[in-house]
Amino acid sequence: VLCVLSCGLRLKSKSPGRLLKILSSLSSGVEVKAGQALFRVSAHSCSHPTVMKEMCAECGADLQGSEAPREAAAADIAMVHSIPELKRLLKSRKLALLVDLDQTLIHTTHDAIHPNMKDVYHFQLYGSQSPWYHTRMRPRTSTFLQKIAQYYELHICTFGARMYAHTIAGFLDPDAKYFSHRILSRDESFNSKSKTANLS
User: Fold this and answer.
1) Is the whole-model pTM more than 0.90?
2) Are the C-beta atoms of 155 and 97 separated by less than 8 Å?
3) How confident is the model at residue 66 (pLDDT cuts 50, 70, 90)?
4) Whether residues 60 and 37 fall in one domain
5) β 55-56/51-52 pair status
6) How far apart are the C-alpha atoms of 135 and 125, rounded to whole Å?
7) Taking every annotated instance into account, which residue ranges of this chain make up the domain FCP1 homology (predicted)?
8) Which of 63-67, 106-110, 184-188 is predicted most confidently?
9) In terms of residue numbers, what domain contains 78?
């Protein structure tokens, strides 16, 4: 059981189950003592009927190194195609394509760049006192996105912060017709060192 509080604190139970109740001891400003019960969890044993990438799709348990039966670990085609997002992609006859930003479609620098340089976007992320960023797209990026979007549903996947990722998406796709809301930034990542780990 994973409980994410409004302050961003993540609490994880050592045993599997379902979250029944967050106890009143978690109210704002209350000091929590070691060993104090924070939430009530129902005893729940999952048979892990659907396993994808070493994780149970039912209870969310990490099954890496687990002694649990692994028959379901190799997902067959029918099971994967039952996921609603994949059904929609299949219907539109498209694949999903994860698009990296820096050093792939664009290049961003903090170095001083002449403000009139052609095809360079100049911006600040956090107000007038924050540093300036200067971004340039690779040649023919717009044409590439237009053509590739016919065959793929495009997703941005970057180690940049959320604000940065959405700002760059606005330059690449001002009408939000290629990426829409499909942006995975560093703020949504579980592993800050491996993009692959965040996709499994």
Assistant:
1) no
2) yes
3) low
4) no
5) antiparallel
6) 12
7) 90-200
8) 106-110
9) 48-82
What's the per-residue H, E or C state across the chain? Answer: CEEECCCCCEEECCCCEEEEEECHHHCCCCCCCCCCCCEEEEECCCCCCCEECCEECCCCCECCCCCCCCHHHCCCHHHHCCCHHHHHHHHCCCEEEEECCECCCEEEECCCCCCCCCCEEEEECCCCCCCEEEEEECCCHHHHHHHHCCCEEEEEECCCCHHHHHHHHHHHCCCCCCCCCCEECHHHCCCCCCHHHHHC
Distances (CA, A) of 107 to 10, 78, 120, 136, 174: 34, 40, 10, 5, 18
Residues 35, 56 share a domain: no
The answer, yes or no, to whether residue 170 has pLDDT greater than 90, is: yes
**Tokens representing residue 194 in the block:** 């491996």
- Nearest Cα neighbor of 30 from 50, 47, 5, 13 is 5
Residue 147's identity, in one-letter code, is: K
| Domain match, 78 and 21 both | no
**d(Cα 75, Cα 139) in Å, to the nearest integer?**
40
* CATH number for the domain that contains residue 186: 3.40.50.1000
Q: Do 92 and 188 fall within a single domain?
A: yes
For the stretch 108-139, pLDDT in tens is 998 888 888 888 999 999 888 889 999 999 99
- Separation of alpha carbons 152 and 191, rounded Å: 26
